[in-house]
Amino acid sequence: MDIIFLGGLEIDTIIGIYDWERTIKQKIVLDIEMAFDIQKAAASDDIAYALDYKKVSDRVVDFVEHSQYFLVEKLIEEVAQLLLTEFAIPWVKIILNKKGAISRAQDVGIIIERGQKS
Ligand SMILES: Nc1nc2c(c(=O)[nH]1)N=C([C@H](O)[C@@H](O)CO)CN2
């Protein structure tokens, strides 16, 4: 199966378990890999047969911007389920980076894979 990816997708959202985190927006960064057979799109040169990464990006940004979850676990799971159900994607891998959440760490977050690759 081929992979379409979105790397370094930065989105500001309300996320966190502490009171102060409920009053501000924090940046999260998503790296998303989506299994998708690109052969029809390649043969036809027609966006109708492609996984439109602009539409995927717009949907994910809109969803995350308007979310207000406490845990990054909940947010990443909801994004994965959205991608699997709203787009014809059989498998997705997401890396969620909540940069700055740990002052002594450059990066902190979660990596998940959902669905079947082939
Ligand atoms: N496994 C998790 N641990 C923690 C989370 C989380 O979402 N999942 N969140 C926090 C705080 O919100 C933290 O990001 C504030 O710095 C702590 N641990």
UniProtKB/TrEMBL annotation:
Coiled coil: none annotated. Residues 4-114 form the Dihydroneopterin aldolase/epimerase domain. Keywords: Folate biosynthesis, Isomerase, Lyase. InterPro entries: Dihydroneopterin_aldolase (IPR006156), FolB_dom (IPR006157), GTP-CH-I_C/QueF (IPR043133). This is 7,8-dihydroneopterin aldolase. GO terms for biological process: folic acid biosynthetic process; tetrahydrofolate biosynthetic process. Catalyzes the conversion of 7,8-dihydroneopterin to 6-hydroxymethyl-7,8-dihydropterin. GO terms for molecular function: dihydroneopterin aldolase activity; isomerase activity. It comes from Methylomonas paludis.
